[in-house]
Amino acid sequence: MAVAIIGAGQTKFGTRKDVNMPELAWEAIKQAMQTANVEQKDIDFMVVGNAGMWSSEAAVPALMYEYGKFENVGSMRVEAACATGNAAIRVGYTAIESGEADVVLILGVEKMQESPNPTVIELIGRFGSYFWEFENLGLTFPGYYAIHATAYMAKYGATEEDFAKVAVKNHHYGAKNPYAQFQREIKLEQALNAPYVAWPFKLFDCSPITDGSAAVILASEEKVKEWGIEEKIWIHSQGVGTGTANLSRRESFTSLKSASYAAEVAYKKAGIDIDAPYKYIDGADVHDCFTAAEVIAYEDLRFAKRGEGVQLVREEQTYIGGRIPVNVDGGLKAKGHPIGATGVSQAVEAWKQLLSKAENGRQVDVKNGRYLAHNVGGTGHYSYVTIYGLEKPR
Amino acid sequence: MEDLRKAAETNIKEYGFPVAIDEKSGALQWVDMRELHLKYIISIENIQEFFEGLRDGKLLATKCKKCGELFFPPQKDCPTCMDSDMEWFELKKEGVLETLTVIFVRPPSFSAYEPYTVAIAKLDDGVRITAWLRGDPQKVRPGQRVKIEIAKRKEGYLMYEIVPVEG
Ligand SMILES: [Zn+2]
After folding, report:
1. Alpha-carbon span A182 to A205, nearest angstrom
2. Ligand 1 centroid – CA B88 distance (Å)
3. What is the ipTM of this complex?
């Protein structure tokens, strides 16, 4: 049973002290339900992606059941670190694909700023192997990715300036996205002169601590037909991979094995040539929690050969008009990274791009009718690659 | 957070509730009165030899008696053989530096330390190890020889460190 996204909504990302958890979630849910033209009674399953810990409410699905007056609906909360949002989509997608559900509400929500920054740094450092990496070594989250960044620099000659260019690009597009946390361009020098967070990463190499929510309505092919829904995109395929908890148990630090595996699975299922996938898709949202992560993603997704991802940055091949536009919503870097909402927000972006609803200056050319989302939890601890398309999958 | 708490305490008297205005947005916030302190109690029952080894100056891994696979960090079970018949194996404490980072923004629980270097080395025995790197991170490069030394942390207990080998 093919699965479509028939509605999408997203809040402004950033500091959202003006709303509490259910109010923030409802902003996205309401938009998603209105664009899908569905009511509460139409929804038979609700999946909430919420990593939590830093926010006060734990039982978010029940909270939203109550706040949004849902009825006769199954629900659950899903967690896969920073890939939580895509894990939520996974659950809804497979529920419909298997015939268990017809219409599913996917909500991704995170209110990270309910805790002070030092507490968030403390909690997010635990998205690895706690005992052997954090308890005694204090390996922070930026540190996990920095381990990869320095390995990449040593092997392929990338520089801190190369990484900074990724931030410049993503801020360039974030400036054009009214939902982004940072709606301002940055200069290369500004990024290069910022203080270090975890060498080689400086402030502008890192995604921020963000509040936000995003929601999509998934529906079965049957429902789409029954309701005569015209405005929709389809989930063409999804690949999911897992990595070791300990970074020291990995063979390579210049790629994320779980992500390249997830990509391969997703490409094969969608009938995309894994040697030149960029020829089949119009753009991609990749998980740029840190600048170097975006460069490594280019290679894991085979937009470039191993060691040549940095070349795409230097040649500006991931701007609109290049080989493949990447993160033209600002990415996690400028749009913001509310952990549980990020993956769902990527689906919202695929929806906007494929239906040509993106804001001025950040709409890609829709030629192939396909968009890719790459969502990584932890440092490749969980990887999701999802391919969305305008045409119903074969 | 301290400022918010103080404002909330004042506001309980003046306003009637533990509230404070968020400085940046001007939005009214309720300052949670319930504080949560987390400290976990983690079992090391099945790897206690590892810690005894550190006390004797040894770095120990577990080795499956059946298939010979080495496990570091040490683990109780061999998933390949579905067996838990392990022996302790003393690693040679020498290897090659693979990658590193310097943690500048530290978690509050590490605030007593200056920026510290975390590195990963591949030991000659075949396993990798993550540990603090002793010395100037600017003077090392991936591929260079390192050794593992056991030293005392500031808190007074033993921990292994990666130390560059001269020359
Ligand atoms: Zn074995």
Report:
1. 14
2. 13
3. 0.95
